[in-house]
Amino acid sequence: MLRTPDAADAVAVAVVGSANLDLVVYAARSPEPGETVMGDDLEEHPGGKGLNQALAAALHAPTAFVGAVGSDHAADVLLAALTGAGVETSFVRRTAGKSGVAVVNLAADGENSITVIAGSNGDVTADETTRALDALQPRIVVTQLETPVSAVVAAAQWAAAEGARWSSTPALSSNSQRPRRTTLFVSSSLRQTRSSSTQARGRAFSACSGRPRTTCPRW
Fold first, then answer.
1. What is the pTM of this model?
2. Which of 82, 142, 150, 218 gives the lowest tally of CB atoms within 10 Å of its CB?
């Protein structure tokens, strides 16, 4: 169950997004298809685009993270990283499954390849996103595409209705077309929200492009 933080806790930024445990494999070179190579070292680090954004935001403003982790070692590492940085985690749900994991193959020349397993990141829902934002009342909402698109749309619609700024990074994409399709879908949802809601306290934001790391302008 989600827990509601104390009403006195003012949150400026809410990040709705992913948290992954990064497993970094160091080797002289990456293996070719079908090949096995010996590695040099293995490290684990808290990561995921959402968690990284929350840690960065917390350096400058009170920040909350909205997402999901599993019931495993990775979840403990991810929650410790967030709380250690002062990020509000009352709206991080623990599921019975596994947390998100990213396996990073890093070669000596700096080249890398990454495989991401969504895990509990795929369990973040639109309803819990809206409930969390209702409770937190942030001035800025940040999303990515490492959670279900329905949760991203819910966050964008909430920001449009409440007059908050919405910033989205259209990644991770499964193919080159997904960012464009998703931003068009979110933009359409915002137009519907703007035209049908008479309760909106501010101007809506649209998804402005399929480029990564884009903060969308006001309409």
1. 0.77
2. 218
